[in-house]
Design goal:
This protein is mostly helical. It folds into two domains: about 180 residues, SecY subunit domain (Preprotein translocase SecY subunit, Orthogonal Bundle); about 220 residues, Preprotein translocase SecY subunit, CATH 1.10.3370. A three-stranded antiparallel sheet has the order 4-1-5. It has a two-stranded antiparallel sheet with strand order 2-3. The protein starts with a helix and ends with a helix.
Length: about 425
């Protein structure tokens, strides 16, 4: 115990010195302040409603539709009051998903994304931006029609409809631009930070709701939920940081009178190469059928209403939704890992640099060996992500607390973003130390 305290005490000056370095370094301080200012702007915009909103009907509709809670999470609370950024970064995420899917069908896109370096990735991102605009318009118009039929939004004439759709679309495009600025001039991934800020902003309201509904008989349940949340946080940190090292040896090279290479190192393969992206992908895909079904339920055609209601009931079924959610997270983990990590390119680069895995032939054999290991460890990571995603639904079924239904997904995103942000800050500090 004394040894642990001594170690913690010795680490304190190191932490303090890093904080001082962050604040005293002008460039690093500007990056952090830029992120803070950008997030403040985002939160201000999330509280500016679009014109013609009936707040009483909106509140009633929101309370009766649990699926909107997921949309509200991605929009940073903007959906609950129909703010000008009510779509959040959803259209941009959807366009990124579509572009990632297209890389599996068009080899030129895959080559652009994986082999053409920074220039290719910039082109790929540019195409994602272009695709975001029509997606934002479609989503904005769909929500405007849906909410108008519910009496929540007043779009009685074409001009008011056009104005609202334009405002919502512009808000989504602005958040996309703001997120990219945060990525370039700040620290961390801007899109992830916007989602993170939206989730964190809802914590005070959720805590207030839990306290307001608190009863003495619920204390054991509250303690159990707290313990489960801490266990999920620890599990996310452990799995996110876990990696499978593959030993790599560099062959000796003699140039003149000097010998190069001959060193041994390792290739770290992360347990969750895709990070939190599969969760975001799965949620984005699951939102579309529910949104379409809700939209068609307001149709004047009775046959359309009948089938839309049937589809909505199926999607609202807890077992169907949970199993589908788990499978989509599982599959998207493999899919995103396959898109972003190519064992053949890695094996080729190792061979070109005179490196090899001991006991494995260079070239195709090395690629197959890495792919085999990657498939096995991704199985563990994908299963963990899927279980964490559906765990809150099981907790909700046991406890009956509906606010926990999106807790696991939100917790997973928050922890992953915080870990990534800490790593980016430490990388910036290390650059300045050297």
């Amino acid at each position: 115990m004394l040894m642990q305290l001594e170690i913690k005490y010795k680490n304190m000056p190191n932490i303090v010195s890093k904080i001082k370095m962050i604040w005293l370094d002008a460039s690093l301080r500007k990056r952090i302040l830029f992120v803070v200012v950008a997030l403040v702007i985002f939160r201000l915009l999330a509280n500016i409603p679009i014109p013609g909103v009936n707040e009483e009907k909106l509140l009633a509709f929101f309370n009766s539709n649990e699926y909107l809670g997921l949309l509200n999470m991605f929009s940073g609370g903007g959906m609950s009051n129909l703010s000008i950024v009510m779509l959040g970064v959803g259209p941009y995420i959807t366009s990124s998903i579509i572009m990632q899917l297209l890389t599996m069908m068009f080899p030129k896109l895959k080559q652009m994304y994986q082999e053409e370096g920074e220039i290719g990735r910039r082109k790929f991102t540019m195409y994602s931006r272009y695709l975001t605009v029509p997606l934002a318009i479609i989503q904005a118009a769909s929500f405007a029609f849906l909410l108008s039929r519910q009496g929540i939004l007043d779009v009685s004439n074409p001009m008011s409809l056009w104005v609202n759709v334009s405002i919502i679309t512009a808000g989504s495009i602005f958040l996309m631009w703001l997120g990219e600025l945060m990525t370039e001039f700040g620290i961390g991934n801007g899109t992830s930070l916007i989602i993170f800020a939206g989730i964190v902003s809802s914590i005070p309201e959720a805590v207030t709701l839990l306290i307001a509904n608190y009863q003495v008989s619920d204390l054991p349940m509250y303690i159990a939920v707290l313990v489960a949340s801490l266990a999920v946080i620890i599990g996310v940190v452990v799995v996110t940081e876990a990696e499978r090292p593959i030993p790599v040896t560099y062959a000796k090279r003699i140039r003149g009178m000097r010998v190069f290479g001959g060193v041994s190192t390792y290739l770290p393969l992360r347990l969750t190469q895709a990070g939190v992206i599969p969760i975001i992908f799965a949620l984005s895909i699951l939102m579309f059928p529910q949104m379409i079904a809700k939209f068609l339920m307001a149709s004047a055609n009775l046959t359309v209403v009948k089938y839309a209601t049937y589809a909505s009931d199926i999607l609202a079924n807890g077992w169907f939704y949970g199993i589908t959610y788990f499978l989509m997270v599982f599959l998207f983990t493999y899919f995103y890992t396959a898109v972003t990590f190519d064992p053949h390119n890695l094996a080729k680069n190792l061979q070109n640099n005179g490196a090899f895995i001991p006991g494995v032939r260079p070239g195709e054999t090395t690629a197959n060996y890495i792919a085999k290991i990657l498939t096995r460890i991704t199985l563990v990571g994908a299963t963990f992500l899927g279980l964490v995603a559906v765990l809150p639904m099981a907790v909700k079924g046991i406890t009956g607390i509906s606010s926990i239904a999106i807790g696991g997904t939100a917790l997973l995103i928050v922890v992953s973003v915080v870990i990534d942000l800490i790593k980016k800050v430490e990388a910036q500090i290390s650059m300045r130390e050297y």
